[in-house]
Amino acid sequence: MNPFDSLLEELDRWNFDGQEATLWWRDDDAAQVHPLLDQLLDILARWDVPASLAVIPGNTEKTLADALAEYENLEVLQHGILHRNHSAEGQKKQELIILPGKDWQENLASAWRKLAGLFGHKALPVLVPPWNRIDERMLPLLGSLGYRGLSCYGSRAFPQAEGDVWIVNTHVDLVDWKAGRKFVGEAVALAQLIGHLRARREGQVDRAEPTGILSHHLVHGEDCFDFIRRLLGILDEHPAVTWLSATRVFQLRWR
Length: 255
Known about the structure:
- By secondary structure, the protein is α/β, with parallel strands linked by helices.
- It has seven helices and twelve strands.
- The chain has helices at 3-16, 35-46, 62-68, 104-119, 186-201, 222-236, 246-249, and strands spanning 21-30, 51-55, 74-78, 123-127, 149-150, 160-161, 165-167, 172-173, 175-176, 182-183, 211-215, 241-243.
- Strands 1, 2, 3, 4, 5, 6, 7, 8, 11 and 12 form a ten-stranded mixed sheet that branches. A two-stranded antiparallel ribbon has the order 9-10.
- A hairpin with a 3-residue loop joins strand 6 and strand 7.
- Helix 2 runs parallel beside helix 6 (222-236).
């Protein structure tokens, strides 16, 4: 069976149940103006898909903020601080770790102030940890720092951390990081997408968590962009599909 036919069958089941198959799109590692970022945002805009762009505050240039001002359906999330690895040798990469003598709270807050200053109303108080990893000891304190959302990878275990911080992750990674950082391929990407949708529908994971698609524009080739175009074209025609902005995903009612 064509993998896209399997996706449509799953969406038909959502539609038969009278349920919305909610989706959202997160793209990581933005810092500078780049043709590949323009290409991705133009594709998303073509299908009216809200873009949630995880921007690295410490590496971001004002030229990026100026360039993104023309995109209406786009919001900016905080992608750590400098996207710098602080893990010990041999351990998985991680930036957001509590280290002796390091004021991680002030470093995060300073990075947020820079992001908010550059992007204004487009910047949301949502933290996206680099490499999708965060020291669990930080979680109870994120709310007191002003964050209202946290996004990593994989089905969430619970919807909120302390301080009314909503947790909404991504579930479909378009990059095969262990095989040369290339496109995972149509079959794998669709299997991930169908798998999470099915798990939600059957109650194996939190049904209320929107299915998140994760892209990294800097490492995508034309094969990946072709897949994105085809996928969005098919999803656009299905009545069960609803795309959510980050504001809706993280329930930022104040905006």
